[in-house]
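To close the chapter, one final illustration. This time we ask the reader to focus less on the individual chains and more on the assembly as a whole: which components sit near each other, and how the overall shape emerges from the parts.
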Amino acid sequence: MIKTMTKPEAESRARKLREVINGLRYRYHVLDDPEVTDEIYDSLTSELKQIEAEHQDLITPDSPTQRVGGAPSPKFRKVTHETVMLSLDDVHGDDELLAWETKIAKYLGAKKLGPFYAELKVDGLAMSLRYEGGVLVQAATRGDGQVGEDVTRNILTIHSIPFQVKPPKAIGGNFEVRGEIYLPKKPFEELNKQRAKAGEPLFANPRNASAGAVRQLDPAITAQRSLAFMAYSLLGPALTTHQKEHEILMAMGFVTDQHAQLVGDVQELIAFAAKMQTERDRLPLQVDGVVATLNDTNTFRRGGVIGKAPRGAVAYKWPAEEVTTKLKDILIQVGRTGTLTPVADLEPVVVAGSTVHRATLHNADEIERKGILIGDTVILRKAGDVIPEVVGPIKELRTGQEKKFKFPSKCPVCGSPVERIGAEVAYRCTNPDCYGSLLLQLRHFTSKNALDIVGLGPKVIDALYDAELIRDQADIFHLKADDIAQLERFGELSASNIIRAINDKRKISLPRFIYALGIRHVGVETAQALAQHFLSIEKLRQANLEQLQKVPDIGPVVAESVANYFKTKPKQELLDQLIEEITLEKMTPPKKGPLSGQSIVITGTLESMGRQEAQAKARAAGADVNDSVSKNTSYVVVGANPGSKADKAKKLGVKILSEAGFLRLVG
Ligand code: IVH
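The assembled structure is written out below.
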């Protein structure tokens, strides 16, 4: 958290942080009930470190920053590891990796390092499995690296761990396998669903759930969790490369990382880590980076150990997806359709590689359910491309100054009362002309996928609105160059350019026009479907619920929203005015084409054309173009860097087309 504090503030914050961090440590190591992720733990510890660095006299001997490693808990039998269980040094980003290479290469008397065996770094619990005569005799946690805990009984419940194996001759019957116990994302989500139903507290992530499960005294509880094991090293004779270890592990029936590969040097390693990062969210298990090990066992050994980690291996960690920060305030945003959305105003913090100031809190119920107070230290999560989310507060860090958030009864923009409609969770401003939503409606009307009026971006719209030159969408067509030229920052030339741009859009397509109206739930695709079905605005505005639901891909919620829109008096008046100003291009009924009756989804970047162009081609060929993949989808066209849609298509067995295949089909 970036903030300057007075000395007493720093002292009290440091005290609280120590209490919380020690509490978390206790929950993890003694109670076997971890509460938060490692990332959160790190985030809090780094805040404490920062305070201690600024105020050195505040460092206490019992500060969690002053101790290393965790001691085993007393309730399991102690096991002394024959070979210490080391940890890995972390690097964050390419610069740190390159600096690491320089340092280690120098130590080994080499110019550069490589080849490496690179594999995923699984976010779970390190485990040592000892086999004698090919039979599993002992499973132990890492503990402090020297002494761990015997959890054999619990580990026997994990199906991916073989009890008995046939090792190749060179290995012999006695060896040790090391790897990570983890809970895949799917059973993790199911587990949490069940817990929510039973009113039990949720696990923050799969790592917590698996760590807790392994360190249960009752193996029956371990058995209830669908834990899995991924092996990453084999300790035994006759192993000349790390890759060989993986090959033998796999041959003996252990699960190893299927993405693992030999990389020639650090540059290739960087490329591998970057590629895996793009796939991170689609992997079935939680992974927080890549582990690279010098492939040649002799070289690896020659590197020796520094502190608790081998010199010859490194963990390349991706940016944390969970951090802690302070919730300064909760703001209310009035959306285009009048919905009031609470938004977290956060102390800026870097998460998943970008600085975040704001995060949606969705609605009042969500704030209540998560127990969030203004002034709380909160956990912020940002996974991949997903928008940042406030997971919840760290209640132990409260000072007593936190305030409960009260949802406003009046719209913060126009002051009209707000209401909840039916069973909806959202509050809405009751004023249909609320200028908060009106402004956004106006901005939407001229935006790229709507009328696309160049020069009428959000700033210009705001200025025109402030000058009372526009009050609704139709006013845009009544603007005069003189009106605009009077505004600050606008000369005559730019004013006449804007007027020309507006006049250019007096004739537009029906789908664009429908989208531009800003009807709740009507995006580009839905607007297209409505236009294609009704072929004129007159037919659309007269359609009843039943007729609307007959439109392909339109469900009851969207149908109702559309019907409601056209029913309201102000919207009818607006529409009448707009129709006087705008000519809608004639829609022709869909031609019979090579893709008639087929539904198609386009994903990824195409080489020879933009997405919109491809969609237009598909429509011209008679296809129904959709945004999301379902089992009713006929084809998914997959370009470069496709997202989850390509995966979903594979899963559902939907036919996948390359760009070339698509072009062939549409002729
Ligand atoms: S190799 C010398 N490979 O990460 C330690 N570790 O932060 C050799 N981990 O203690 C570890 N996935 O528990 C290795 N593919 C992988 C891993 C992995 C997860 C864990 C392991 C280790 C910790 C270090």
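The pocket of 2-(butylsulfanyl)adenosine is lined by residues 86-88, 119-122, 126, 180, 232-233, 291, 310, 313, 315 (CB under 6 Å). The two ends are 57 Å apart (CA to CA). With these observations in hand, you are ready for the problems at the end of the chapter.
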